[in-house]
Amino acid sequence: MARRDARRDRTPLERQRGRRRGRALAGESGLPKYVPEIALRSIEGHLTRTGTQVMAWYRLSAQAWSFRSDSQREVLIRQIAAQLGELQGRWLHLRVTTRPYPVHMWAESFDHNAMGRLPDVAGALGWDGFLEGEQRHLMGLSMSDKEVFLGIEVSGRGMLDRWVERAAPVLGKVAPAAVRAELAALATEVGHLDSLVAGSGLDAVPASADDIAWLMHRSCSLGLPAPRTLSVVPGGVTRWETEDLAAFTDGVEMYQEPYAPTVRVIGRLRTQTVSRNVAVLSLGLMEGLRIPEVDDPWMQHSDRLPFPVDWSARIYVRRPEEVAGELQRQMGKVRSQIRHYTHDHDLDPPMSLARQADRVLEVEDELTTGLTQLNTRLYGWWRIAVAGKDEAEAVSRAQQVLDVYRPKVQIEHPEAQYRFAREFIPGEPLASTAYRRRGSVTWAASAVPAATASVGDRRGIMIGETCTATRRPVAWDPWLAQEVRRASGLTAVVGGLGSGKSFLTGLIVYKTLRSGARWTVLDPSGPLAELTRLPELAPFSRHINLLRADPGILNPYRVVAEPRADHFADEEDPERAWRRERSLAAATRRRLVLDVLTGLLPYDVSRLPHTRIVLLRAVREVGGATDRHPGQVIDALRRHAREGEEHAGVVADFLEERRELPQAALLFPDTSRDDPWHAERDYRLTVLTMQGMTLPRPGSPREEWTDGESLAVELLNLASWLTQRTIYDADRNLRKGVALDETHFLSQVPTGKVLIDRLARDSRKFNVRALFASQLAGDLLRVSGFASLVNAVFVGRTDDEEAQGEALRLLKVPTDVGYEQMLGTLSPRPRHDDRPDDTPRQFIFADGHGGVEKIRIDLEAPHLEHVREALDTNPDASRVATRAVSGRSAAAVRAPDEPAPRGSAVPPHMLRPAPGRERDHVMLGDDLDDEFADVDDPDELLTVNRPTTGSTRGAVNELLDDEELDLLGDADSGGDDRHPTDDNGGGHSAGQGQERVRAVGEARR
């Protein structure tokens, strides 16, 4: 009682507190519960869960479609169809979206891969400016990569499944074996799906955490501009709880005005509010497409549009028993209608009914012949989303989608845009069953959603962009094949006149030089010599005109390099391997001398069998040592003539006559001098030219060559051997490049074929990228083994039908299927325009790793304007006047080892020989009269400043040293604190330097 009275006497607040006594505190139960705005409830690894479904998500690998045979394409379609057929009874969600090309990632990889790059030159375009300019140009192109995701239903989820998942922590303690069994069953099914879609066809891999995050952002923010940099998912994070899904939905609103043709999406992009209008379309009726014989994959048509397009497809793969029952009902309807015509009205049934009956029987036969995987039926809904800054632009783009698919495919623009737009989000339900499409898995596979342009790599120099159905940048590392894939570095550059071979070669040489490679270029016509005059390359370059060089620089015994013992340290028996290579080098020299001297003889004399015999005897007597020269072979022929070999004297007389030609002096050295090919500096770029040399017309027979043309071919052969010698004089691990133009003449002489074969075989071992430029692919294919050793191939415009077929063989592309005509349409030339055709050239590029695409060479970036002008080989008379009034000294931009041009103004102090540095030779002029005048002046009465004593370097080299000092003086006067500037837009002022792309700084760090 007392206790009862005490309770009665308490205040209301005390009585309320007493009632709460014994109950649990509020804790989490007092917090508001977060409910996501989307159907998704959690993400774990590559699995997404909703209240009713678990789906596994995969990322599909890009599939090459261009330049493949119909049989290869059919195999791909059948492989995809077989994989889809194995997914009977499951729902699929196919999502196609785009990701901006990762410019900052490419820049970081490119910067990291640029080992041993050139030092910066004051006042010229430096490495940072070059890298920044490349990034700015790429960002301005706004190109993106296609990304394809496939979600596969793992299992349906009933109320019991959801209850088990929520009670898993408790059940794990009460009945752990049951929980483990359930999880193991789910893991087993997921593992089966992983292995199924990983096979050839889909080539899918489980989506990573970053992939899932990107897909969710692109789906929840449908139509908004894709961020160029998305925050990376923290390492080790593979699970998103229900509350974590707010990261995808917060800050994005999607709504639709009544009867509006678009849905409006508003979201935040960094600190700005951005809005877009999105039009969602649906795939409608489709006539029978002939894929791959006539038509391209129907989902790839949207890749041709100049704006991004998103796809979402909900697909259900039907079980055979479901299809069989439906076919029986459909067949009953058709038979009933036919009987109505024939029995009731005594009329012939319409042909449409007969076709329907035949088709039903055909499908029934397909399902009962055992090929159930390829003929399994499915139905689905395919949606297309395009975005615009406003409703008018979105509707206009939707119309372009309709235009690109008509007349064979009908595209519908449905109402209820908001609900259709929500379908793009993983886990969301189907908006409507309208526009359902039915077909076989083979029909669905013929869409090939992952078909795209795939060529090049992600760490090399930027050479252009693809210009097929898909537009994306093309980067190429010329040394990836040798250093990573252990393949050959042989590259063919093929194309007719004006196809852009020289421009492409110059672009590759310039950009790889900037990133640390060393190049030796043989360019007979000489336009690539302009690279040595660029301010950023001039201190590290030299230009040697072989027709003005020292006598004997093309001595056949010297152009073949002597093997170095250290190059064979990794052989099983280094000493034996080295001696073997020395013997092969000596044999190569003897064969080279024999070919060269035979080529100098008149055709009627050289084709006599006895001529070959006497020459072979003389060459064998002289031997193959490096200290020999062709004059000794002529002396041996004279001795044989005195011994009674009359024909040897005849051959010696002809060779002596050729020896008197000015250009032939390059073969016969002055024995009183040192080796003229002795490099005193480690040059990064050496360009050998032979301006003024007249080569025969390609394809002309040997008997029609003039004496000058025969000599020119032999000099080109020797110059090519001289070019490859630089490979063996440098460290084998350095990245080196050799570029040879006019190689179609090399394929016509035996030693030229040996050179091509040797470069191809040694390119991997010595880390060399060898570029062979020729007008006809057939000239290179005639070299034994060239087609099997070639790695990368560039084919420009080719008009001749036979040449087109040979070019496709070089590309390893199927012939006689229509690709030949495409080579004739590359770089289309304007027909009714009198302006110069300076449009970027197009090539078919095979990267050597399976990628073959049509690309467009790109050197249009503002920071490379001076390079573009240097490589422009189109004649223009206005340039003469421009140079005359420019006031710039040619010496200011001339390479250090380039001789002063004839007629140029040279300061008087440079004409006077320095003490102990007198001139030792006179440079031959361009015109033939001056060259003969020099040869016909044995007493040197007409020679100015001809030294009688002195060193091996002359006044020309002294002038070069002065130029070097002037250049260094300009560098010192420029100061180190200023930002480099130039008129071509390559540099940046101090103010512009503060606006540098953030990715540059990230890449440099």
UniProtKB/TrEMBL annotation:
Residues 1-16, 995-1005 have a biased composition (Basic and acidic residues). It comes from the Bacteria. One of its GO terms (molecular function) is ATP binding. The keyword ATP-binding applies. Keywords: ATP-binding, Nucleotide-binding. Residues 945-954 have a biased composition (Polar residues). Residues 1-26, 884-919, 931-1005 are annotated as: Disordered. Residues 884-894 have a biased composition (Low complexity). InterPro entries: P-loop_NTPase. The keyword Transferase does not apply. It holds the Pfam family AAA_10. Residues 931-940, 959-969 have a biased composition (Acidic residues). This is ATP-binding protein. It comes from Pseudonocardia alaniniphila.
